[in-house]
Design brief:
This protein is about 55% helix and about 15% strand. It has about 290 residues and is of the alpha+beta class. It is flat. Residues about 1-5 and about 10-35 have low confidence and may be disordered. Strand 6 and strand 7 (about 230-240) form a beta hairpin. The longest helix is centred in the C-terminal third of the chain and has 35 residues, at about 250-280.
Length: about 290
């Protein structure tokens, strides 16, 4: 994997064809292009620094090259067509729309900052109250489960002990299991005290549970399977099937978002009203309707 700096430092040599042909065609006369400028259209310049800021991280060399080619092409085309269009289009309406959009962005950002500075934290009592009133709206699309999950090498010396302990409902055995997993377990998750989305378990085990998750969980509570040198142990203690009401802890973030949105709307409406009244009283605003 190449770094963004390596890609950008070599991009002039790597890129070929269309982009630089367009740049040459768009430039009027000879242009003094500096080493840090990767593209030039009339008075507009695209620098390596600007390109580097927009280059996503984690791309392979080939993906980085494709991204840069597309970015530079779009940059050149946008500025070329914009400059040409500006000569033939009445910019009065364009400038008005730009100004309106700018003002909307300023208002939106101001209201966001004011709300975040003043907003009260959503507490558990508010979450529980909202959940009780709107429980029917929070329905599981996938099952949720409680239980125990382990991934252990097939040659683990304590595999037999783990197989005996992982599905036990005795508290003492749970303590023993905690000590045993340290010796050999690759993965261990004890989630008997919390609901977990079934997909999180499904993704950890390379086993075909079938297309009907509810059906498999209805018929099975234990799984012991050896695959590719590892033994997977799964014990399900409780199941909430798809279609049932979501537990409050699973709905928590959705509820917080809903409450924040509601509070934000109320706060913004009141803030706008207060600002408008203050401006009218001070004579800054006069409305004749």
């Amino acid at each position: 994997m190449f770094t963004a700096g390596h890609i950008l430092n070599n991009i002039v040599r790597i890129m070929s064809g269309g982009v630089f042909c367009i740049i040459a065609a768009c430039s009027s006369g000879e242009t003094d292009v500096k080493d840090d400028v990767i593209a030039h259209v009339d008075q507009h310049t695209l620098t390596f620094a600007e390109l580097r800021k927009n280059l996503p991280g984690g791309l392979s060399a080939d993906d980085s090259i494709r991204f840069v080619k597309a970015y530079v092409n779009e940059w050149v085309e946008t500025r070329l067509i914009s400059d040409i269009a500006a000569e033939d289009i009445d910019m009065t309406d364009i400038n008005r729309l730009v100004e309106e959009y700018r003002n909307q962005l300023i208002v939106k950002e101001y209201l966001r900052r004011m709300f975040e500075a003043k907003a009260d934290k959503i507490d558990d009592s508010q979450i529980n109250e909202y959940y009780d009133k709107h429980k029917s709206e929070f329905i599981l699309e996938r099952p949720m489960v409680k239980g125990t999950y382990l991934k252990v090498p097939d040659d683990a010396s304590n595999l037999k002990v783990l197989k005996k302990l992982y599905h036990s409902d005795k508290l003492a055995d749970a303590d023993k299991l905690e000590k045993e997993v340290i010796k050999s377990a690759i993965h261990y998750d004890y989630f008997r005290d919390r609901w977990v989305d079934w997909v999180q378990i499904d993704n950890k085990i390379p086993y075909d549970f079938g297309t009907n998750e509810n059906q498999w969980l209805n018929k099975n509570r234990k799984l012991e399977v050896s695959l590719n040198g590892f033994t997977y142990l799964l014990y399900i203690t409780e199941v909430l099937p798809a279609g049932s009401s979501m537990p409050v802890e699973a709905a928590r973030q959705q509820i917080i978002n809903r409450l924040l949105n509601s509070h934000r709307k109320e706060y913004e409406d009141q803030l706008k009203k207060d600002l408008l009244n203050e401006a009218k009283e001070s004579g800054r605003i006069v409305i004749n309707l």
